[in-house]
Amino acid sequence: MTGGVTQSDALRTLHRVFGYDAFRGEQEAVIDHVVAGGDAVVLMPTGGGKSLCYQIPALVRPGTGVVVSPLIALMQDQVDALRTAGVRAGFINSTQDFDERRVMEAEFLAGELDVLYLAPERLRLDATLDLLSRGKISVFAIDEAHCVAQWGHDFRPDYLALSVLGQRWPDVPRIALTATATHATHREITERLGMPDAKHFVASFDRPNIQYRIVPKAEPKKQLLSFLKEEHAGDAGIVYCLSRNSVEKTAEFLCQNGIEAVPYHAGLDGGTRARHQSRFLREEGLVVCATIAFGMGIDKPDVRFVAHLDLPKSVEGYYQETGRAGRDGLPSTAWMAYGLQDVVQQRKLIQGGEGDEAFRRRAASHLDSMLALCETARCRRAQLLTYFGQEAPEACGNCDTCLAPPETWDGTVAAQKVLSTVVRLQRERGQKFGAGQIIDILLGKKTAKVIQFDHDQLSVFGIGEELAEAEWRGVVRQLLAQGLLAVEGEYGTLVLTETSGSVLGREREVRLRKEPKRAPAARAAKGE
Ligand code: ADP
Ligand code: ZN
Predict the structure, then answer these.
(1) Which atom of ligand 1 is nearest to the CA of 179?
(2) CA nearest 487: which of 341, 389, 369?
């Protein structure tokens, strides 16, 4: 502690306004620096307490703290919460009518606001910049600052215009905050926001109370149900699904099975969304099934689990979504079911999706990192922390791979069998097929489709009877994840990649993760 007047002001404000005893982690250092007029870039995991890092300087320094946030839907809640604590807070965004906006503007100009929330698009308007020029500003806070990064997963063009703040108000300290930053994103934030002299505060991204688990997907809804019943009965949590349709279906399924669940996605009308969100915040033990439209900025401390029924598009996304669990520091679970179909589907989405070649390459590399996390035989937490460029333990003791270390096996021969089946079909028949048909051929199954195409005549027919179907799916999935096999076209047919040849030519060994039979925690719960 450095002591001094400003610091005790900050601490007094923490006690008096927010009712907390002490600062957490980096908060005090950040607040001291900003209160003293310095710029700061703050990387802190979700739930780390970023809000106080700008709210307290806004209260301690003279003038209004201007907070730029993309989360328009949450501004009302944030402002209400601050007002309840006696902070004079307001917002200006597109949800307001002319009169409401005028009132806010007048309060700002009269110096009657401690904190003013603004959507980034407003700062592209000269009218807004003029307004700000006519008032007194204590600090600019740029929340969700990773939105400025074009290589990130959450890019918002409006953020690019925010460098104007430093140019027009060189004497007002700026603080950029994010829960998501690899080294590259971190650098982009600093460059694009024009904050070369900012001090950087990087908190640990470890969330020790979250147990990370990724299980092989078989019957996802049923697996989810037993996970919830066995480990999280009566707990509040979020279930993420990729599509609106599966959000609806999953919520329905849970309700039919005695778990109170509501859907949340962008296709629902605003009223329903708001109702479900506020029920989630207020009630105990409600499950929200949602697309990723749900959760950004939601501050519910006792979310006990976050479940993924579909693969997130990036590790950043995964970390942010799972980070919504256990903000109160109590044990929580990040559970995901992941399977072959996820890999096929995501690869297809990238190929068939919009965007130029660079965009696709970026998306593919995000996906590769996510797949590496799913397929790793190493500690998941260590893998995550390393991804974010942070120091990592060898083993954390609180993830599935630590609790039940997966076996790996030499899958070279199995890989060769898959790849040569793909090659045979293409060379001898000029055909391409999806994983299902390839596996049926390997297993020597005379299905209607096998007969129809005479695939029982291929020399590779039945050469894979040593493995079960689920194991073959695991092999194909891991080959796709490792880039030794690729999918193509709208049917997700399998094709070779540049590196497939090295496997066929026996130049490289393929190490594969053995598919666990059951989830490790379920085993632990049964005392085995
Ligand atoms: P973030 O924006 O980093 O996700 P928040 O600012 O929403 O995190 O804070 C997460 C939770 O932690 C909130 O409920 C907040 O009130 C609480 N919190 C933050 N700082 C402290 C502190 N110093 N002492 C106690 N609780 C805190
Ligand atoms: Zn671990």
Answers:
(1) 3
(2) 341
For ligand 1, pick from 11, 17, 18, 32 the residue to mutate: most ligand atoms within 8 Å of CB.
Answer: 18
Atom nearest to 48 CA in ligand 1? 3
* From 231-240, 271-280, 289-298, the region with the lowest mean pLDDT: 289-298
| Residue range 122-162, pLDDT digits in tens | 999 999 999 999 999 999 999 999 999 876 667 888 999 99
Q: Residue-wise over 375-386: b if at least 16 C-beta within 10 A, else e?
A: bbebbbbbbbbe
CA–CA distance, 438 with 436 (Å, rounded to integer): 6
pLDDT digits (tens, 9 = 90+) for 194-213: 999 999 998 888 999 999 99
Which-ligand-closest: CA of 77? 1
Q: What is the pLDDT of residue 377?
A: 87
d(CA 258, CA 138): 51
Ligand 1 within 6 A of 47 CB?
yes
Q: pLDDT tens, 230-249?
A: 999 999 999 999 999 999 99
Q: Which of 135, 132, 117 is nearest to 164 (CA)?
A: 132
Atom 2, ligand 1: residue with shortest CA distance: 50
Q: In the structure, what pLDDT confidence band is assigned to residue 517 with cuts at 50, 70 and 90?
A: low
What token pair was written down for 360? 């696709």
